Every structure is written in C-alpha cells, then in structure tokens.
C-alpha cells in the first residue's frame, strides 16, 4: 500500500496560529483526507516505511513512519498545528490554511486500510511530496 501526502498550501505564523502546511492524503491513488503539519517540524520529503504500532500518547495503535533521526512520528487526528509535535495530522475537511476538521473518520480509514494491508503482508510506505 502506498500512502501519499501531497503538500499544497502554506501559511505563515500569525497572532492565532503557528505556521502550517496543509495538503491531501491519498491511499493507492485515491484521496481519503486532508493533512496539516507544523511547517517548522515537517518531515523531509521522501518515502518512508509505515507500520501500525502502539502510541503511548493515544494509548492505541496508530500509523508510525520510520523517519531517520526522529522517533514517534505518527499520522493521527488533529485540527491545528499545535496538535502536532512533528506528526502528520489527518482530517476529512480543510477549513483554512490553518485548520482541518473531522479527524476521526479520516484516521479510521487510514488505520483500517493499513491494518488490512499489514494482515496481507504488504509492504507499506508513505511518500511525502
């Protein structure tokens, strides 16, 4: 399975929000949701292995990216950049350059598809561009 994060919109710091980059997330070519990342903490562009692993923060399994030099890099729900310490936030709706919304349905889709792919012994990656 190939998960693609395509960054598309960037917004600078302002009095309410820290700098963000939003984009889209697709699985095997089909868009499933929007992404949001704190610009200063973005994962470098490239392709990374991804696995469902236990998240101490969320106390459940979440998609974890194997990013060299970094730990606990996940794809999880959130609405604004302060909801992330360098992870990729996922949600169904993009409200603005600074906010996404409806995280649970988006993360449910990603987690279910990744879990099914792992059960089929597929090689799973996240490509960020």
Structural commentary:
- This protein has 1 helix and 10 strands.
- With 129 residues, the protein is mostly beta strands.
- The chain has one domain (2-128).
- It has an 8-stranded mixed β-barrel with strand order 1-2-3-7-6-5-4-10.
- A hairpin with a 2-residue loop joins strand 2 and strand 3.
- The two termini are 17 Å apart.
What's this entry about, in short?
The chain has 129 residues and is mostly beta strands. It has one helix at residues 103-119, and strands spanning 2-11, 20-27, 30-38, 46-55, 60-65, 73-77, 88-91, 93-94, 100-101, 125-128. A hairpin with a 4-residue loop joins strand 4 and strand 5.
What keyword list fits this structure?
single chain, 129 residues, two-stranded antiparallel ribbon, mainly beta, 47% strand, eight-stranded mixed barrel
Give the topology:
Blueprint: E1 2-11, E2 20-27, E3 30-38, E4 46-55, E5 60-65, E6 73-77, E7 88-91, E8 93-94, E9 100-101, H1 103-119, E10 125-128
Fraction of helical residues: 10-25%
Average of the residue pLDDT scores: 96
Order of helices and strands: EEEEEEEEEHE
Beta-strand content? over 45%
**Strand order, sheet with most strands:** 1-2-3-7-6-5-4-10
- Which assembly state applies to the chains in this document? single chain
Radius of gyration, rounded? 14 Å
- Summarize the main sheet: 8 strands, mixed, barrel
Uncertain stretches of 5 or more adjacent residues: none
- Tell me the span between the first and last alpha carbons: 17 Å
Number of beta-strand segments? 10
Separate helix tally: 1
Main structural class: mainly beta
What overall geometry do the principal axes of the alpha carbons give?
globular
Number of individual domains? 1
């Amino acid at each position: 399975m190939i998960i693609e994060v395509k960054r598309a919109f960037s917004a600078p710091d302002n009095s309410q929000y820290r700098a963000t980059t939003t984009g889209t997330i697709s699985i095997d070519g089909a868009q499933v949701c929007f992404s949001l990342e704190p610009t200063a903490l973005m994962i470098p562009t490239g392709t990374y292995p991804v696995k469902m692993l236990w998240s101490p923060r969320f106390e459940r399994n979440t998609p974890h990216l194997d990013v060299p030099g970094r730990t606990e890099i996940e794809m999880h729900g959130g609405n604004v950049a302060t909801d992330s310490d360098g992870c990729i936030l996922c949600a169904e709706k993009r409200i603005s350059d600074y906010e996404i919304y409806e995280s649970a349905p988006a993360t449910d889709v990603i987690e279910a598809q990744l879990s099914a792919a792992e059960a089929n012994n597929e090689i799973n990656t996240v490509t960020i561009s």
